[in-house]
Specification:
Order of helices and strands: EEEEHEEEE
Helix content: under 10%
Number of helices: 1
Number of strands: 8
Largest sheet: 8 strands, antiparallel
Strand content: over 45%
Radius of gyration: 19 Å
Shape: globular
Length: 137
């Protein structure tokens, strides 16, 4: 199979968090998970697989200046923030289609900070949970 479409790259990614374009972000990861369980009855093999709750979790990696901006928005702490995030891939000016995921109800679960000897800047990875991911339709 031959693909003629261009793959997305880091330069094509935009993150808007709480209505603010995050220019100092270095990474994002988000996942939808469904609780699943095999249902057994007569015999050794499962009869079906049942699905339960669906959860959303992830992490955002940003620079210290972005952490400080989020802390100011949260009156000194990011732990009380409840934000929506918009992740967009693509650059229509280069002919690639724009794909957008909206992460609804982001709530940070930790407020870590770390610097090590020799570091030139502070990069912070902040885990979060969210209510849903709404994909572009």
């Amino acid at each position: 199979m031959s693909f003629t479409s261009r793959e997305y790259e880091w330069a094509d990614l935009t993150l808007v968090l709480g209505g603010r374009d995050i220019t100092g972000f270095r990474g994002i990861k988000y996942t939808e998970k469904a609780e699943k369980e095999a249902i057994f009855g007569k015999g050794r093999n499962a009869h079906s697989i049942q699905t339960g709750n669906v959860t959303v979790e992830g992490e955002i990696t940003i620079l210290q200046s972005e952490v400080i901006a989020l802390e100011k928005a949260g009156n000194g702490s990011i732990l009380g923030l409840n934000l929506d995030g918009v992740v967009s891939y693509g650059d229509p000016s280069t002919g690639s289609a724009m794909i957008t995921d909206r992460i609804v109800g982001i709530s940070f679960t930790e407020a870590p900070k770390e610097l090590k000897q020799g570091d030139k800047f502070m990069e912070v990875t902040i885990p979060f949970i969210a209510l849903a991911i709404k994909k572009q339709s």
